[in-house]
Design goal:
The chain is mainly α and 101 residues long. The protein has six helices and no strands. It is 69% helix and 0% strand. The termini are far apart.
Length: 101
């Protein structure tokens, strides 16, 4: 995780996502869904599709963080339109369309 922290502080979006994964699972750090969401959003704001997808899921399901349908919809919509996601675009679209306000 030390290298991911260094890469993230240089703005490398995949490193933010890897840190988020670590905080979500507790891999090498104390488990913290809040920090996971923070790092997913850091990567997502840089246009990184996997992080957009994961941030949307956390907001949709409220896994250790407060559920927020509007933010879930926004991140899943961005993921659904992110060509770098390949087949996950369809999953993002389906999950986005399940959200009720």
């Amino acid at each position: 995780n030390d290298y991911f922290f260094k890469a993230a502080h240089l703005g490398f979006a995949p490193a933010f996502k890897e840190l988020a994964d670590s905080f979500l699972s507790g891999g090498g750090v104390n488990k913290s869904p809040e920090w996971a969401l923070y790092y997913y959003e850091c990567a997502a704001k840089r246009g990184y599709g996997p992080a957009q997808f994961n941030a949307g899921i956390l907001f949709k399901e409220g896994q250790g963080v407060a559920s927020n349908p509007a933010k879930a919809y926004d991140w899943l919509d961005k993921a659904a339109h992110n060509p770098d996601l390949g087949d996950l675009q369809q999953d993002a679209q389906a999950l986005r369309d399940e959200i009720k306000f």
